[in-house]
Structures are given as structure tokens and as C-alpha cells.
Amino acid sequence: MRKFVIILFTAFLSFAAHASEVQYNLKIDGITCQSCINRSEAALKEIDGVKSVKGDVEEGTVTVCADEKVSLTDKQLTALFSDKGFNYRGMKKQEQCDPA
Question: Does residue 12 belong to any structural domain of this protein?
Fold first, then answer.
């Protein structure tokens, strides 16, 4: 019985940790090299509440995992990427971050 309670409690904590995250899948034109990804990742990581950022040069995408309190906007992302020399094309938001 004790093992069951521990397993149940661990599962609850795991669910609670994921329930408070949001993932933004960003499409960016002009990201052609790892340096481009690094500059984009650094800028996004400066946003309070952003937990992780992962870029994909081949797909021209950047994935952002953040606290659910973070609300990225098209206007904000257009300015951020324009400042880095890239063209922000849009995003898809999902209610939970993909496992790392």
C-alpha cells in the first residue's frame, strides 16, 4: 500500500509540473545556420518565464517552452526577430511542452 501511495503521489507531482507549461512553435524565415539559432535562442531566453528554447535550422523553427503565465504575442515576436535580421512568420501554441 505504501508503494502505491508513493507512486500515486509521484504521478501527481509529474502531472502538476507539466500542467503549468505552454509551448510555442514558431516559424521563422532567414534562419540558415547554427549561429542564427543561437542568437534567437539567447534573445528568447531573456524573457522572464521561458524555460527552454530549441531551434531547428532545417525546418526554420524555434520551439519555446515557458511557464503558463508567459504570453508571447505576434507583435512582440515580430519585433524580436526583426531586430535579429529574421522574418517571424507565425506560431502555434500548445498547452503542454513536449518532453525533452
Answer: no
Domain hosting 74: range is 21-94
Residues in the chain: 100
pLDDT above 60: residue 92: yes
Burial class (CB in 10 A: 0-12, 13-18, 19+), 47: middle
pTM over 0.85: no
Q: In which region does residue 85 sit, left (phi positive, over 0), alpha (psi from -120 to 50) or beta (all else)?
A: left
pLDDT at 95: 93
Q: Residue 96 forms beta bridges with which residues?
A: none
